[in-house]
Amino acid sequence: MGEQLPPRRKPRNDLLRNYYGIGGKASGKANDTSDIDGPNFDSAKYQNKLLKESKLDSLISRDNELVTEIRELDGDMKTLVYENYSKFISATDTIRKMKSNVEDMETEMDRLRDHMSKVTAHSSTIDKELAPRRDKIRQLDGVHNLLKKLQFIFELPNRLQQCYNTGAYPQAVRYWARTTHLFDHYQQLTVFHNIENECKDIMNRVRQKLKDAMYDPNASIQIITENTSMLIQLKEGPTLLSKEYITLQSAKLEGLKGKHLVTLQTEGHNEESMRSFNEEYLADLNIVVASYQRFFMSDGQPSEISALGMSTSNISRRSLGSASQKGSISNQEAHPSAHLSESEREEANSLLILAFSPLLDEYLETVKYAIRIPSDPLALPRPLPQIQILNDSYSAIVHDSSALCDVLLAEQRMLDIVKDWESELLTSLMHDAAAGLEERFRVFSEKVVASQQTSANVDPGILTTFVIDTEEWLANFMGMDSLQLLAECLQSGASFVLGKPRKDMFLKQIQSGLLKHWRLVADSIKDHMTNVDSKSVVHQTVSLVASRLCLDFAEIWVIKTYAQFSKELYPVSRRSSNPYRQEDDRDIIVPLLEPDVQESTDLYREAGQLCLISYARTIGYMFTDRIEGFLRDKKWLMLKEKDWIPSSVSPVWTEIASELEIVERMVDIVYPVDSENADRSAESEYSVPRTNRLGSQSPSEIGLSPTNQRLGITSPSMTSLSSFTSAANNDSQATNSMPRTYGNDLLSNISKLFQERIEIYGHIDPSASDVCSALVKVILKAYNEILREVTLTKYAFWQLQVDVEYLRIVLWKFARNEKLLSSMLEEICASAYRRCTQPISLDSSISDQILGAYEQ
Questions:
Q1: Some GO term, biological process aspect, for this entry: which one (predicted)?
Q2: Nearest-5° angle of CA 502, CA 506, CA 507?
């Protein structure tokens, strides 16, 4: 009985919410009288329903459940009461405290209101009493300030002379700058005019001292900058001053650069030398550009020098100040500006770029030389010293040289250097892989030549060792050595890979470099095959082994390499794998790399197929040349000895059969045969009975014409020749001995047009059976095509029948499509019949005797 018990009770929280009326959505069974949790529950009906529909064991079970639920509800209700009771006690205590604190609040607020009223009244009284005096105090203060200014003006000549005598030129400039507007305002007064002339005379001498200090050979960059600032405040001509500033500072920077370049050549481009180069030369170059920008390119709005990438306090840290000048320019609040017009600022900007851009170029070239990647980056110490040098230079440009970034685009140029360095690192690694693979192929080719036993037989140990060692070497090179180096660069904490944009840029470079690597390795394999003589055994062996390498790359190593790169370099954001199967390498690869994986695997599948086809084509050419040489031998073609009969199979076919077995063994070594191919059934969908040797079946069983019976041709595929042979029988007896006519050849060519097309070098599976099957098609097709161009005697036709039956015996095990094999053999017989002057069939007993010896 499948009776259904009432639904189980709701969770405790839902019941408690419903009890207190704070529940969520109303139940959809609110009007159901059998719902034990509903408001309309009818206990009598519920009991009757249970007694009527449930068995005794179900009733007992339900009773136990109700008892358990009642106990749980009792416990829940007690817990709820206890919890609420403690909250009620806490709320009562809080209310009691609030009541005691609020009792005196109204009295205190009244007292505060009275005090505030008194304060307001006193304040109004004081303000009214002081109002008349306030204006007078303001007037007196203005007069006092004016008197102080007048006193300063009257004392100004003495102050300026004292500053000139003590060498405090910055102080003198500040005094003069503070009073210039006053002289302009009171220039109509004679007393002020006399004072102004006296001050100007002193300041002219100060101006000359400043210029002399700037042109002093021992003047530092700091002195030139400070003096230029003071000359601007003294209203020196900005156009000439800007050119003088550029000329003097460029000379100082050239000297500083030359000193550091000598140090770099002596001590090498190491981290310490490059760090000193950054801290001195690059920092000074940024100071010069920042000061020039503020002096001659600013619109006069106030701005802190720190916004240009270097504070004034940092400028003086290298003791660039003059001992004779008291009061450095760093005490000023901001640099002065020459207030040039728009056109003059554009001209000043052009002069700046023209003068200082070459200095920045030389610095960047020095950085490029210091971080160059050698031919073998894996042999460098870890971490790479180039990373630290590049990190220091990048930080010095991007973080500490904002003036160079603004005016000379230094940041973008530095980013280009970083990108080029990352690309160079990847390219060096990839070329090492390609060069290493090329060297391994060269050594392998030499071993093949040294161990060559026959024209197609090579020591199997060399093949297996080369494949295993090469795949292991390339997997370690890419998946361990190169990956570890790239991971160290990415995780080095260098500023040029910090942050998602910079890291993504490096990862994109790695992705592009890895894809380029696979193409480079594939091209290296193809190039090596191209450079080897296509008719040599080395080419055959290299093609076969290269096909195995390419197919293994496509199926295993490309996927494993990308899986390792995804695991080490990319964030953990993998696809959710099926919990019921083991996670494979494909599941680890990040989606971003999947198109590259597909492209690389397709590339190597195509390369492997091309290598395998090249292997089969090379051997096929060798067989074709041998067959052509045999068939075009005039001694064999024009056999005319009377009573001559074949005594054996032509040697060329036994040699080809022997070499086919060698090819099969070689391919089996490189591509071990699986159980499916090893147990290939003789009755497959392509197979035909192997009892169709010449004369082995009754001709009447397959409906052949008498002429075909005479020829010994027993395949139904040859019945198309019956009309031709019937016509031949109607001719005179001498017709049999005549050569083929033009009409007969025309019928042959028309019949050939309607035959099924045979693809010789199509897709070849990586197995011995498929390679040998392709070679069988090449052998038979070449045999047939060459026969179409020769003329046979009766004796040559007999030999050919023996050879064809021999091929039928030995080639069936190499052909995957035995029906196609039989059809091609019968086509050879047909071609031989057409090209024979006396197409008389050989006695079957003779062919059986010859072939029996080979079968044994």
A1: protein transport
A2: 115
